[in-house]
């Protein structure tokens, strides 16, 4: 028994990603056609060559038909995955396992979400019929509960913590300004971020990820076949996914300054990839910055910062694009936008570009060859966490 | 010996200064304040508060065989509201829970029926009183609830029931059609003309039946739907002025069906043993009830006295908040979907949790679970749980948020993760709270509320509020 991983058994040989944003003129079908074709083109294949598909969407469609219909897929397996905000990563993980198992030669993981058609602010999820007792707080409110808990535990004054949150949003907007696909392609001054209208707790509107439409896709083959399609394949080193027992809202010893699920999946992923010092070994990380306090806590959960020190590392610029470990170089959920089902694959898309030296103005040059993506679904104390580690070099 | 063995009162937290009505509408609205049920309260939820307070001070082992609920403002018609009160008290399914409602007078009838019952009976009274903006009913009405546990168990009675008498007459003084938001009243002097003799007649008859005389009355609780008639009856009764009980018109207003209950609770809060209490309710005739306090009242302590609740209210409610809470003013909702309606089968399955705030405790490791679980979150034992009711357990805020995006009938929504004394945690909404004062470590207690209504279904559940009760 154990989580063995599939280190270096599969590789990504093509990726595509639509711009994220308010696509009033594009449907779910349009975005799927765009990202699927972009990925195929990147791998130099036609969509007919694919053997199986994993589609991730939280609410923009049901069943594999959501993909097979617009792409006119001829009688091939298409699974639809859902795992809240980690949906895109979940489709990637399943496609990787399918190829690693030998069942298929070439699979596509594709994610899509159309959030802007609802007409509502923020993310809207319709719960199943229930007894009306779960607290009906919004996602920003749930994540905002991290802030007073972190302040309280580490003695960081709320004003100082707001500065840290602002710094995170400012950095991600700065990175997004260099990204032609990002929803918000501009820098935002710190005072604008800090004074933006409050949404929940200390979170202003600029502390929240962009509500957007978009799609991203990856093509996965066995590692030994990778060079048939590209000179620069990106190998899958680790895939870890955990769902927690949701004990946070139930047990008093959970203190709302960590995601225990992230700690568990990070441990598993580092073991699969043989990483002992993530802060030194990783070229970059894409993390689930759904709200600014989330990114802060993730720095500690992923082992990039010591416990209680993440806020100082943020302020010192350690995670800036030119910092020791760049975090969210593409702008993250904050600036790139967060079309739920697509986000996990969008993170991998940035890893793909950066590791292949194709990230343009935001190219990271630190000589390291591993990248991490982290994707989370749920809320503090009750979430699912996905981590992938990908790299340019297969094990010797 | 039959009588009252326990009681509870509930005065909601918010007060509307009558001056704000004058300012907004340019009409005289009098001095003082009125009590206002919050946006998340209705007569059922307030009755639960009063009933829980009564049951918290009931002698051990007394379980009401019946719950009678009376209000002129029922949350549901065609469906019994007392069943929700009964469920919130965690009394199981073995009882009669019944509404006696529609008119203000029903409250007096419900208490009489409870006192006449041969089995322990809980009588809950609640009302929300309002009128059209600028009306006397709006300014002088009040919201509140009271509950009385009646029993004939010797040694437990704190106020012995001596007898009652009533008069009834058919005439139009005050009326309201089903579905109307406000009542209509006939010319005031006509009501006085009809009521005064009816009340006097009931008083005479009642004193004869109870074998008492007016000069021996130590406390006179006199109230009704016609203030002028009530004043006239008091003035002509020959009662000593100092025994006339406070009617809280300056702080609470007239709480209709529940009002005599609030006044009686206040009298019981202060009464000494062996005192004679007369209760007069003037509504569609008159009803008088006589009680004599026993030695047991010397040791009885209400969970929270009426005076304490009156004193701990929050002044400063704005008139537009009051109007929107009473749905007299429709405001722009947030750009969020309306809440889903509460589904009947899941609510039925979770009755003990949803209404009775009953969690489970693992018998293997002691971990407490809210809501109840089958598998222990701590030791993973399966189906080793015993149920535990947490309505009266105080808690401490572990973390919190002010949600300005969420749907709420009165934004912003305040939510907190609260840790219960003795174990267990639950993230819930907060109420009766100033958002700027919420802090980690703050002490809270649970209160039964109507969270919202969607598609004609009221969603009742528990919220946390800063500790208000004094004991």
Describe the 3D structure.
The complex is a heterodimer of chains A (396) and B (471). Chain A is an alpha/beta fold and 396 residues long. In chain A, 33% of the residues lie in helices and 19% in strands. In chain A, the strands form 2 sheets. Chain A has a 9-stranded mixed beta sheet with strand order 3-2-4-7-1-8-11-10-9, sandwiched between helices. Chain A has a two-stranded antiparallel sheet with strand order 5-6. Chain A is globular. The model of chain B has no long low-confidence stretch (mean pLDDT 96). In chain B, a hairpin with a 2-residue loop joins strand 12 (276-282) and strand 13. With 471 residues, chain B is of the alpha+beta class. Chain B is globular, with a radius of gyration of 22 Å. Chain B has a 9-stranded mixed beta sheet, with helices on both faces. In chain B, strands 19-18-17-20-21 form a 5-stranded antiparallel beta sheet.
Put the structure in a nutshell.
Helix content of chain A is 33%, strand content 19%. Chain A has 396 residues and is α/β, with parallel strands linked by helices.
How much strand of chain B? 25-35%
Largest sheet of chain B: 9 strands, mixed
Quick one: CATH superfamily of the largest domain in chain B?
Thiolase/Chalcone synthase
Shape of chain B, please? globular
What is the fold-level CATH name, i.e. the topology of the largest domain in chain A?
Peroxisomal Thiolase, Chain A, domain 1
Number of strands of chain B: 21
List the helices and strands and how they pair.
The complex is a heterodimer of chains A (396) and B (471).
Chain A: E1 10-17, H1 28-43, E2 52-56, H2 65-71, E3 78-81, H3 87-100, E4 106-114, H4 139-144, H5 146-154, H6 158-176, H7 190-194, E5 198-200, E6 203-204, E7 213-222, E8 234-243, H8 260-273, H9 278-281, E9 284-286, H10 292-301, H11 310-315, H12 332-336, H13 340-355, E10 370-379, E11 382-391
Parallel strand pairs in A: 2-3, 2-4, 9-10
Antiparallel strand pairs in A: 1-7, 1-8, 4-7, 5-6, 8-11, 10-11
Helix pairs in contact in A: 1-2, 3-13, 6-10
Chain B: E1 3-10, E2 14-17, H1 18-25, E3 33-36, H2 43-56, E4 66-70, H3 82-88, E5 96-99, H4 106-116, E6 121-127, H5 136-140, E7 144-151, E8 159-168, E9 174-175, E10 184-185, H6 188-210, E11 219-224, H7 227-236, H8 259-270, E12 276-282, E13 285-293, H9 306-311, H10 319-325, H11 344-349, H12 351-354, E14 358-362, E15 368-369, E16 385-389, E17 395-403, E18 413-420, E19 425-429, E20 443-454, E21 457-466
Parallel strand pairs in B: 4-5, 4-6, 11-12
Antiparallel strand pairs in B: 1-7, 1-8, 2-3, 6-7, 8-13, 9-10, 12-13, 14-15, 14-16, 17-18, 17-20, 18-19, 20-21
